[in-house]
Amino acid sequence: MIVVGILLALGLAVAVLASTRRMDRRAGRAEWRRLAALQPAAPVSFAPAMAADLPEPARRYFDFVIRPGTPLRTVAEIDMVGSFSLGSAQDPAYRPMRARQILAAPHGFVWAMRTRGGLRVAGSDSGIWTRFRVLGLIPVARVGNDPDHARSAFGRMAAEAVFWTPAALLPGPGVSWEPLGPDSARVTVRHGDASQAVDVTVDAAGRPVQVVFERWSNANADRRWRLQPFGGRLSDFREVEGFRLAHRVEAGNGFGTPEYFAFYAVEVTAIRFVRPGGAAR
């Protein structure tokens, strides 16, 4: 009877975990569709005059990342491969991974990731949740639906818009730029109660080679939420439908300090701009 009871309990636990996974997947698909539907139905085309009043480094940035006449689509799907740390700076435990993302700044994003080899970890990160599992069922991270997570996720989204959806950062309601130096400018993105400043460094041609911002995070020894440096380096720029976008990204906590830890390094394999109705080209 004891053995039967244990088996029944295990069966019930597996059923509950499987049901939760199905609900999470449905929620992920629904959020993906919501974001895809935010693509402008009839986007205007880029003209350099749209950035004429910006600080010179910001003008240089837009002159490089968007060709004149490009439809200003702001929702993209990104496929990527690379490595992701499941450990710490002292013991990174990097794992090869494959991921797919939809980015719709300032409204949200979904990043769905799966590691390869060994004990596999899979799940997703978004503006609403972070959910990852091992062996397809067992939760190892399940957080979100709170102001701290939302604030942290908004920072990531604003920074990634710099190198993957630059049309979302043209000046207008909710987006402003200010000068920092001869090769850098700060863009501030606001949406509802959320606000995030991102410092962008460009090279002589206008490539955004570095992004840095103060991210709301609890990735520290105290596990306390606070602002701390986060950033990354960008390279391998390629043209995608009139945009010049980074296809190699490295990022992590403590950027610019001795504690910098690049826990994320990816190579983009494809970028698609969603068409109205949710279909990517």
Key descriptive features of the protein:
281 residues, alpha+beta, 14-stranded antiparallel β-sheet, 3 helices, globular
What's the overall average pLDDT, rounded? 90
Strands, total number:
14
As a whole number of angstroms, the C-alpha radius of gyration is: 20 Å
Residues in β-strands, percent: 35-45%
Residues in helices, as a percent range: 10-25%
Instruction: Tell me about the largest β-sheet.
Output: 14 strands, antiparallel
Global geometry: globular
Low-pLDDT sequence parts: none
Amino-to-carboxy terminus distance: 58 Å
Tally of contiguous helical segments: 3
Provide the succession of SSEs: HHEEEEEEHEEEEEEEE
Number of domains: 1
Structural class: alpha+beta
Structure, explained:
The chain has helices spanning 2-36, 56-65, 147-164, and strands at 76-85, 94-104, 108-115, 121-126, 129-134, 138-144, 175-181, 184-191, 194-202, 208-217, 226-240, 243-253, 261-275, 279-280. It is globular and about 80 Å long. It has three helices and 14 strands. Helices cover 22% and strands 44% of the residues. The chain has one domain. The model has no long low-confidence stretch (mean pLDDT 90). Strands 1, 2, 3, 4, 5, 6, 7, 8, 9, 10, 11, 12, 13 and 14 form a 14-stranded antiparallel β-sheet that branches. With 281 residues, the chain is an alpha+beta fold.
